[in-house]
Amino acid sequence: MQNNRKRNVIKERIRQEKERRERLLAEEEEQYEDIYKDPISEQIQKEYLEQPQNQREESVNVNLPKNESSNSNPALDWITTIQKQAGTSENDLIIKETEEEAREREEVEASRKAEEEARKREEAEARRKAEEEARKQAEAEARRKAEEEARKQAEVEARRKAEEEARKQAEVEARRRAEEEAKERAEAEARRRAEEEARKQAEVEARRRAEEEARKQAEVEARRRAEGEARKQAEVEARRKAEEEARKQAEAQRKEEEKKLEEVRKRRLEEEKKIKDAQKRQKIVVAKSEPESDEINLNNERNQPNETKFEQEEKVAIDKKGILNNMKKYKYAIIGVASIVLLVVAGFAFSNMKNSQAASANNVNSLEVNANLINGLRLSAVQKYQDAALEFDKVDYKKLGKEDKKAVLFTYLLSGKAQKAIDLEQDFAESVVSYYIAVDNLKKVKELKTKNPLINFEIAALDNKHEEVIKLRDQVPLDGRREGIIVNSYLKLNKSEEAKKFAQKVGNKDLLEKINNSTPNSSATSVATISAG
Predict the structure, then answer these.
(1) Distance between CA atoms of residues 261 and 253, nearest Å
(2) DSSP character for 263?
(3) E-assigned strand segments in 345-402
(4) What is the pLDDT of residues 450-477, one digit of tens each?
(5) Nearest residue to 484 via CA among 512, 449, 520
(6) How far apart (Å, rounded) are the C-alpha atoms in residues 257 and 111?
């Protein structure tokens, strides 16, 4: 920025100097014009122009000094010429004035040149000084910046070291606190893990028992399904063999009919051959009956040819009649046999086509359902309940049998999809509750969304909604545990008489004994442990 300022100052000085020069040149030009426009000078020039050309040349040649160079000052030459030409005192005065003016102009020009030279030297000196000043300022600025940069770096380094030290101290403190917190968390985690391990072991044992039961049921169901599948395959194989046998019989019948048709065709060819032979014999007889001459065998021409012709015609007529009768006789037989064969073959093909199409469609659908169902049962048998549930999702639940539905519902339950099992079968809610009780995870009941009274009863018991529990007591299947929950709700509401009546109604002697042993003012926590005895 300092260098830019210096450059701007130098440019401003150069611009001012250029303006000053232009102003001086303009003033000099004005002075020069004023001199040459002087009336005396004009008069001298006029007189000079009025002289003859020869006189002017002679005067010039005479008055010119021999040793004067041709490249002298034109103004001085002009003045010298005027002095020589003017012989009067007035001309001398004018010449002197002119010389004086020329000398003054020369002095002015010399002084101007000297001033110009001095000014240029001053400008060069000023420029050099300005550049030197600018260089010194730039060096000083660079030195200042370097010092400033070094100072900043030192400050940054000091700050960094201080921050590094503070960070290390903070890290040490944080590490110490983290170690203390980690130790405390480890102790708490160890306690929690011990409790969790004990709870998980109980859950695993209960789940193992439930899964073992479900696995056994699934194995039985899979075995039953496999036997049913084998039986169906045997039926399909038997049906296929029967169809193959029927096809073979139809083929044999078709060949028999073709054989009969071949025999009929052969007989027809034989009849045609007989007709042709008869026609040939007729031609031969006619040729023999023609008279070889008018004089030989005249009687034979009258008798024998007539007899032979009659016999031949009769024979031919008999042959034609027999052939026609035979053709008529076999015509209907041929048509009937062909019709029967055509109907049998067409009907058999049509029935086979319909049966094959229907069987193929049913088999495809049943095989798809059976494949998904069997895969699901196999997966559930090896306790892969998640994968088994995915297979059962592809099966139409409504088309399954009772045992298949049961296997599907238990698989959904064991795979964590109890909600889906209840959605498929509302009566399965009791099995869901029993499973959650067995695995000691009855709080999972709260996640179920259903209007089933049993589920609502269990949720009300968990939420200590005693009035709701009493309201639903007649809508749920009772056991020792639920009876204890109902009695507990009565006691929570200070209704010991109703609790006693309910215990007498269900015939639970343990509940009656605990109700009688509890004091009237005791809290319900004294009988909160009532459960299935």
Answers:
(1) 12
(2) H
(3) none
(4) 888 888 899 999 999 999 999 988 888 8
(5) 512
(6) 153
